[in-house]
């Protein structure tokens, strides 16, 4: 990892950053905040009380908790804390949060004894912040935590809808929970066809995103996210030019707001913004494993699997005869608190199961040979950053797009696109552990990324441009 040299400057410009309160969004935003701090800016973080990060890890930042301070506010009190329901906050705060956000920003802007505010940087999904920022004459930049490719597909959803690609989406009842829709989908040949507008995608990839055809509130949020990201003063992406060059060309051609591609995991780890306690007890075991011999398995911070598919996972892993380190979050198996569904004695000595791990450190460990992932963008990109090939089992949202891109465009992973079948899992794990071509490609990608961070490289220049741009606001 690159060490950031701290610039010794008088911190006379301030930036307010406002992440979406979920692990996959808090991580890149706080990595960005660290980066901007290292470049001399004063940092204020707006955050909900829900899922607040450990502020003691950030003594150099000022935190302000907003939107859900009133325990009697009927709109927000009783919202689910876990699973997909936890995302209801995104809908509600986008709907009702504008007045409070404006009020809190006015307070910050009027502070005479604090450095003046250069800009607001919010998660792209906080689209309600755009009109608020405009009304205050405050430039708003956006952090988009997924890939450029995903943004372009999301931006084309109305078109894809018009062309009939979402026609089957209303048939699927449970793709958000456990991928049950996969079997259903694989029965229909039409869904294996190529998407004309995005030739690397199959029709089923569009369906697996889980957006309904009509009256979809999530679709509305996505539509507003796209529209207001385009209207923002700049877009910051957790990516690098060599990874998504054609998509970057399209973004630059079609969006007037400047884009900055910054590979955050190469600047700071996400450890300090972890919302869960990290288990480190397995490191002595991992240290003793031969190089590139262990499969790391983790499905991010929100996905859930039903018991039947969890058992397919267990058997697939055990039958592969590879050593593994597996993160099973409490609640990952639907209806279980943790590992009740795990058959006694089946795992043997070959594997370790933990509740949460310092993921980036694990991926950087010499013993790790492959990453079986749900293809969340942070996980995908962290794997690229460490040169680790992937086995992809996406659930919903951007994940099916990331999985397809990983396997068919970058060719640094194997996509388990037919759901949870133990034989296929075993075969995919064995293949990724020995496939020299996949390993070589991901190694080259990592090298390309490392070179881009050197002075004159695209990622290096992107940081410089972002700092210059914000300083000019
Ligand atoms: C969600 C979406 O699923 C994802 O597709 C989107 O891009 C961001 O929001 P999540 O499902 O949590 O995120 O996945 P991911 O994007 O991979 O983020 C998970 C983060 O948690 C990663 O930064 C990873 O390093 C971290 N993590 C995960 C840990 O630190 N420890 C773990 O044990 C597991």
UniProtKB/TrEMBL annotation:
Gene Ontology terms, MF aspect: quercetin 3-O-glucosyltransferase activity; quercetin 7-O-glucosyltransferase activity
The keyword Transferase appears for this protein: yes
Family annotation (Pfam families): UDPGT
InterPro entries xrefs: UDP_glucos_trans (IPR002213)
Keywords, ordered alphabetically: Transferase
Family: Belongs to the UDP-glycosyltransferase family.
Name assigned to this protein: Uncharacterized protein
Source organism per UniProt: Tagetes erecta
